[in-house]
Amino acid sequence: MTGAPRTPVELVEVGPRDGLQNEDRALPVETRVALVERLLDLGLRRLEVASFVRPDRVPQMAGAEELLAALPDRSDATYVGLVLNRRGAERAVLTGCHELNMVVPVTDTFAVRNQGADTAALLEQARDVVRIGHEAGRTVSVTLAVAFGCPFEGDVPAARWRDVVDRALDLGADELALADTVGVGVPTQVEELGSHVAQDARAAGLRFHFHNTRNTGYANAWAATGLALREGASVALDASIGGFGGCPFAPAATGNIATEDLAWLLRRGGVDVTGPARLDQPAAAEVARWLSERLDSPVQGLLVPAGDFGGPA
């Protein structure tokens, strides 16, 4: 990308939610609050911190309201809460959650397995979530799960994802996210799907969520960055400290792309980042190690064992 115009990329830290929800050990609320505080100290400012789901289904996310009440009240931070339906949105707007993130799987099979309703029904619920959020003065994003491939239905035909994207853009959300939920996507798909959304006038914001299940997560993130540079727009990229996380429908998955690894890639590539423009790599590695100890689970990112390296400032 030498010589290309420098366009900001926003890092969205999803470790406190997606990084924890699939781990065997459920962390208490006070430990999750401490994690958010450490991430804020790194300079991360948009963080997905909670999931408003049934605690008997996802015990790792229990106590969402208690968590939001205990987080630092900072004017420079955006706390994001994931919701799966109207009820989740109604819970979220009663807390200090600044942004609601509604998930709509692109395939019916995944939608029913994950949320108990097909894609069309969830798009209707998403319309209500957008209304509920906006009426409460919150921003709302819609994430299209399994947009790059489904563990049950396989490849998603272009006609299918185009139709779902079209209906999702009509919802009036503040941002649309394309999620490679089970880590099967490749850069050519990022280009195809991302360009389709970026060139639509209804797209207020574009975000990507990549898993590194098959070691393509960082290549996909770089492709998304290139797309933003070429289109002259900004793009948000989800990442999780330490690379923790995963999908219960993707056995043996390695989880999300790691925040510290992604930040290193962008820094070395000369790409501006909204938020921690110069993420302190040793400090980020220390947070990843701290979380690893509490989860009794190894760090998935590679920068922690490999260490930082010099290069372009």
From TrEMBL:
Coiled coil ranges: none
Pfam families to which the protein is assigned, alphabetical: HMGL-like (PF00682)
Keywords carried by this UniProt record: Lyase, Metal-binding
Domain Pyruvate carboxyltransferase per the UniProt entry, residue ranges: 9-277
Gene Ontology molecular-function annotations: lyase activity
Gene3D superfamilies given in the database record: Aldolase class I
Membership in a protein family: Belongs to the HMG-CoA lyase family.
Name of the protein in question: Hydroxymethylglutaryl-CoA lyase
Taxonomic placement: Bacteria, Bacillati, Actinomycetota, Actinomycetes, Propionibacteriales
